[in-house]
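user: can you give me the structure for this one chain? tokens are fine.
assistant: on it. calling the predictor now.
[tool input]
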Amino acid sequence: MSFSDQTQFWNERFNKEEFIFGKEPNEYLVKQAKQYLKPGNTVLCIADGEGRNGVWLAKQGMKVDAFDVSDIALAKAKQFAKDNSVVMNHTLCDTDGWSWEANAYDAIIAIFIQFADPAMRERIFKQVHKSLKPGGIFILQGYTPKQLEYRTGGPSLIEHLYTEEGIRQLAGELTIVDLSCYEQELSEGARHSGMSALLGLAAQKPNLIS
């Protein structure tokens, strides 16, 4: 799917007055952020949509960069940041178009980025490893294949869903500090609502040995 096709696809989804994934931050992100992040940290939010997660992180005093492929979502995110009196950097691009600078971020956040097929997912993990500072943390949440039974959100293609084994393999040189598969009621707007089969990952880039 080309960049313009992706933009069109997501613009059609986001072109509503309501926030399709709600305005509250993702619960798994909040839990991990409280443990591993602090004010002043530099954070990148991958495909941050309407901004619920990026805005929450900015409200915790973090310096947040966020990108998304939908200009409609970004317009909503910018207004949401303004309404919450926080400053963020928003960029219109996809995961392949983002300039992944080496050792740039204390944390990188990927919440339900399940538009990524296996090849793109592999590229993302490699870029995340490169862009995290030593000691930096990667926080990811997504659906597992069991989600196909629940049908309460997420993609219908099994190859876009996460297995513990697959994520462990992708993590590569990152040190996994939390990897859990669990089931929980989600209430994240109209698109993520009801009992859900979830995977959460928090993984750290090893500190360089001086």
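assistant: here you go. The mean pLDDT is 95. The chain has one domain: 3-12+20-204.
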